[in-house]
């Protein structure tokens, strides 16, 4: 199934909220799921509270979609990797995908990772990847504060995965 960046963005933004500045969130000031550090690193200099959805979308495309090279995967995998990159950082997301594919989790996608993914069924890649995400969440100190929301995010992504596979 082919999934466009617009669809991927709409799904992911559904997991993210509006403006937040929770002192318990290491990301600090955030809007549309974009942290202030990511916003500044991608050229946004305005008030985080005033960031528009379209500005956030442009940052998501540059900072996550392009940097994680999401377009090199089948649509179902590109969505799941993108959502994880937004949520966990690109390096963590790629290492999770590599562990799901049972290859060295060095954070660098090359021919070995791509070949391993291609040799697996799409369902296996998706389920193992989402299992890696859940396991990652449970190891975080902030799980007691944010774990319920993170688990709901993965539940939503399981539902997307079911609809994204032939």
Structure summary:
This protein is mainly alpha-helical and 166 residues long. The protein has helices spanning 5-15, 36-41, 53-66, 75-88, 90-100, 111-119, 122-138, 143-164, and strands at residues 30-31, 34-35.
Overview of this protein structure:
The protein has 8 helices and 2 strands. It has 166 residues and is mostly helical. It has one domain: Chitosanase, subunit A, domain 1, CATH 1.20.141.10. It has a two-stranded antiparallel ribbon. Strand 1 and strand 2 form a beta hairpin. The protein is globular and about 45 Å long. The N and C termini lie close together (7 Å). 33% of the residues are buried.
- The secondary structure category is mainly alpha
Characterize the main sheet: 2 strands, antiparallel
The CATH topology corresponds to: Chitosanase, subunit A, domain 1
Q: If strands are numbered along the chain, what order do they take across the biggest sheet?
A: 1-2
Which percent bin holds the helix content?
55-70%
Residue stretches low in confidence (pLDDT < 50, at least 5 long) are none
Strand content: under 5%
Based on CA inertia axes, which overall geometry fits? Answer: globular
From the alpha-carbon coordinates, what is the Rg to the nearest angstrom?
A: 15 Å
Order of helices and strands: HEEHHHHHHH
- For this structure, what is the CATH class? Mainly Alpha
Mean pLDDT value: 92
What are the SSEs and their pairings?
Layout: H1 5-15, E1 30-31, E2 34-35, H2 36-41, H3 53-66, H4 75-88, H5 90-100, H6 111-119, H7 122-138, H8 143-164
Antiparallel strand pairs: 1-2
Helix pairs in contact: 1-4, 4-5, 4-7, 5-7, 7-8
């Amino acid at each position: 199934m082919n999934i466009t960046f617009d669809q991927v963005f709409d799904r992911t933004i559904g997991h993210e909220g509006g403006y937040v500045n929770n002192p318990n969130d290491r990301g600090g000031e955030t809007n549309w799921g974009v942290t202030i550090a990511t916003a500044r690193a991608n050229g946004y200099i305005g008030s985080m509270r005033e960031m528009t959805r379209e500005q956030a979308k442009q940052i998501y495309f540059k900072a996550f979609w392009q940097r994680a090279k999401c377009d090199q995967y089948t649509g179902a995998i590109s969505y799941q990797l993108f959502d994880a990159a937004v949520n966990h950082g690109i390096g963590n997301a790629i290492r999770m995908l590599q562990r799901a594919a049972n290859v060295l989790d060095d954070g660098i996608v090359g021919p070995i990772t791509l070949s391993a993914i291609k040799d697996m069924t799409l369902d296996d890649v998706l389920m193992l990847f989402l299992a890696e995400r859940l396991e990652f969440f449970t190891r975080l100190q902030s799980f007691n504060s944010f774990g319920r929301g993170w688990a709901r995010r993965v539940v939503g992504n399981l539902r997307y995965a079911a609809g994204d596979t032939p």
